[in-house]
Amino acid sequence: MSDFYEKILERNKKWVEDSLALDPNYFQDLAKGQSPPLLWIGCSDSRVPANEIIGAKPGETFVHRNIANMVIHSDMNMLSVLDYAVNVLKVRHVLVCGHYGCGGIKAAMGNDSVGLIDNWIRHIKDVYRFHHIELDAIEDETERFNRFVELNVKEQVYDLAKTSIVQSAWKKGQELSIHGWVYGLNSGYVTDLNVNFSSDKDLSGVYKLKF
After folding, report:
1. Per the CATH hierarchy, to which homologous superfamily does domain 36-199 belong?
2. Could you tell me which of 4, 186, 199 has the C-alpha nearest to residue 86?
3. For residues 121 and 104, is the Cβ–Cβ distance under 8 A?
4. Looking at the chain, which terminus has fewer C-beta neighbours within 10 angstroms, N or C?
């Protein structure tokens, strides 16, 4: 076996030992069940670890990750996670978190084929099409890239709000808020994009208007 593989096995042992040193019942308590208050929908990028970014402990964050943190209505994986989080775990917050420097967003800005993922990137390109006037007006490529990341997160929050799962929860009066963030790889800080919706707000802009 490779040195790297041996190292990750050893890291697991050390993590268990360190956790038990702090709390002898740590794993026994975790095994009893979960009731996380948050569902995190983020990018698969290895530099964006959901729990670490917000300082959450195991059991505090339910996580779904895919390339470019997309909320696609035909994605049964995402919908299954969302349904379980909202209707079984009763999370109170759903957070879509993108990040600057996202490879999926960068690929969607170009026309090169990168293989099977082209089919996924097609959805990201749609976001660019929706906002092409604003984006094309930005001359600096880095600024355009960053703005595209932000607009993509906002569109995913809107799409999340329009899912039947979230709509049903709100109609039942269930406490559920959704938010959009962008994470800065070079700073560690998140930016709240102020695209937030909850059951106690006027949602006409989400489910009454046609997008």
Report:
1. Carbonic anhydrase (3.40.1050.10)
2. 199
3. yes
4. N
Cα separation, 69 vs 40, whole angstroms: 10
As a whole number of angstroms, the distance between CA 48 and CA 120 comes to 20
Q: For residue 162, give the amino acid letter.
A: K
SS3 at position 78: helix
Place of tokens 């909320």: 71
User: What is the three-class DSSP state of 26?
Assistant: helix
pTM, two decimals, is 0.92
> Tokens for 24?
């002898």
Question: Three-state DSSP class for 148?
Answer: helix
Which residues are the active-site residues? 43, 45, 47, 99, 102
Delimit the domains of the chain by residue range: 1-32, 36-199
Q: What is the CA radius of gyration of the chain?
A: 19
Count of Cβ atoms closer than 10 Å to residue 74 Cβ:
7
* Binding-site residues from annotation for Zn(2+): 43, 45, 99, 102
Name the DSSP letter for residue 48: -
- Reduced to 3 states (helix: H, G, I; strand: E, B; else coil), residue 13 is helix
The answer to whether 109 and 131 have CB atoms below 8 angstroms apart is: no
